[in-house]
Amino acid sequence: MQMGDDMLESLKSYAEKLTAVPSVSGFEGAFADLIVSIIGDKVESVQRDVMGNVIAFRGGRGRERLKLLFEAHMDQIGLMITRIEENGILRFTNVGGINPLALFGKRVKVFGKKEIFGVIGMKPPHIAAEEEISAVESLDRLFIDAGYSSKTEAEELVTPGDIAVLDYRSEGMLADHFCSSGLDNKAGVLALLAASELLETSKNYHDVYFLFSTQEEVGLRGAKVGGFTVSPDAAFVCEVTFGDQTGSGSDIRTGKGPVVGKGPNFYPPLVKLICDIAKREDIPIQEEIEPRPGGTDAYYLQITKQGVYTATLAVPLRYMHSQTEIICMKDVYRAAKILVNLAGREHILQQTQAQR
Question: What is the pTM of this model?
């Protein structure tokens, strides 16, 4: 199965738009606006709930259609200003899991009354003690220098509670790879948007709900509410997983297909169905063993209301939670193709239940 040039260009265009808009957990509003503008003409209805989730609906044509949920979280990790020092220095904390090692000396965008550039300062090696050069400072000791000379000057544009992200550049790479920040989980969002586009030229047997959820990085919160609203028969979570960066010990490779999870969080017959579809459609996939549930939105979706048959499709990603995350567009496209095949397959749960 090959990805055409038109689809590749479409994915690149979407990726550039998505990564240009920050979506720090709890502050996904502008990004949600973008999602609505992209998917609105590809579905029958779009709604937004109190949590900020975007839920889009595309009706199926089957007589015995199910409610299928395709889910990806919109939010990304980020920073939040906590206070302003008398000398204009900005103190901050993390929103989601951030490694302090990834912060020293980085450029930062602060979203105050307007977008402000700053740097996360560090002591020059010329004057740092030997133990300070290799030390990892805690977040409460780090600071952002935006060039202000006083607290009064900084307060004209910045307020505690403003969010910030590491500055980055989105860039296409060799072999259909793409580098940016926030690809956890804009890669999953990209797969859902690709699936919505592919469904325009195919017939989905089942009713399909696209859930773009909020606040995954701070506790899987949006999916818990969104899953309750939709109350699907089956849910398919599009996430990212650790790719083949040096030293990871992972056998998973970018460009080798999306990753299906195996473990107690995922309904085994549904996982087998995904594998069968991939084999039939000549779509390469990879497998990941996950014995402990809880790391993705699949955790809460599985136990929504009376319970939901759940599975995951993850896009391999290198250098997770940095400003230089890398994915392969082929993996995104392949995940979207599997979702489209699931939407068009008449007997999903009947077959899987018989296999159990």
Answer: 0.94
